[in-house]
Amino acid sequence: MLNEIYDHTKEQMEKSIDSLKRDFSTLRTGKVTTNIVDQIRVDYYGTPTPLNQVGSVIATDATTISITPWEKPMLQAIEKAIQEANIGVNPNNDGDFIKLFFPPMTSEQRQEIVKQAKVMSEKAKIAVRNIRKDGNDQIKMLEKDKDISEDESKRGQTEIQKITDASVKKIESVLTAKEADILKV
Fold first, then answer.
1. Do 22 and 111 reside in the same domain of the chain?
2. Fewest C-beta in 10 Å: which of 7, 40, 95, 138?
3. Domain containing residue 85
4. Residue 150 burial by CB count (10 A; 0-12/13-18/19+): exposed, middle or buried?
5. Is 90 exceeded by the pLDDT of residue 57?
């Protein structure tokens, strides 16, 4: 019983860390990545569709993203979606494809993005602590129902805390790596 709770807790905490990594991938670093436009939805014949499903999205160099639509009439819709997404650049439409030119980041912008990363990691820590609470509540219920002894309950809660500490440490290391990546000029 306790092992199932431990496994479930570990699995849920890993999902929180994976979610944090996905969130981090949308943050801009010194080198531009196509992940910046992942959240953009284009009106594709009345259906909001991810940008990468209506055209080819590639990073041509460290500061430029090029978007080539599968269908020419989609150029205006893509351009409009990018403007509405407010990602900090204006799309340049040349009739065949759209280019996004990202200026080099200033130190203030880098510090601002580091702050966003810290907020994201704090949310991940809160999620991990909520998962810890759920695991501890399940153990306390087992003790209350007399399925496990008080000593087993204490050991179980200690084990849940160890899993939590390891997850928080992992979040901290992911944040440290992302900060270094953002601040690297």
1. yes
2. 95
3. 34-101
4. exposed
5. yes
Residue 100 has pLDDT above 80, yes or no: yes
For residues 60 and 66, the answer to whether their CB atoms sit within 8 Å is yes
Distance CA 26, CA 28 (A): 6
Tell whether 58 and 113 lie within a shared domain: no
Residues 111 and 171 in one domain: yes
Which pLDDT score is estimated for 35? Answer: 83
Q: Helix (H, G, I), strand (E, B), or coil: what is residue 72?
A: coil
What is residue 66's three-state secondary structure? strand
Q: Are residues 94 and 111 in the same domain?
A: no
The verdict on 110 and 92 lying in the same domain is: no
Q: Alpha-carbon Rg of the chain, whole angstroms?
A: 22
Q: Which tens digit of pLDDT belongs to each residue from 101-133?
A: 988 888 888 899 899 999 999 999 999 999 999
Round to whole Å and give the CA distance between 178 and 38: 18
Q: Which helix (H) or strand (E) holds 169?
A: helix 150-183
